């Protein structure tokens, strides 16, 4: 099954435009990572600034590599203050 991260993040109003602009590139780069099986981020049509997230990676190492890349990327800087509410399953399987 791999590792699944699901949930959402809330973009601060002051960063919402920048997050919307940077998101397509973040998704493209994430989907191209070794070990990424699925990577979807969509803004909730009823709650501006809420982005639903669903990610699947082949294993915990692939998820950790994704996080390291994100932390060092433009996306990591732009979305640094987002309120993240995620659940991760499959880390111990």
Automatic annotation (TrEMBL):
GO terms for molecular function: monooxygenase activity. Keywords: Monooxygenase, Oxidoreductase. It holds the Pfam family ABM. The keyword Disulfide bond does not apply. Residues 5-69 form the ABM domain. InterPro entries: ABM_dom (IPR007138), Dimeric_a/b-barrel (IPR011008). Gene3D superfamilies: 3.30.70.100. This is Quinol monooxygenase YgiN. It comes from Rhodovulum marinum.
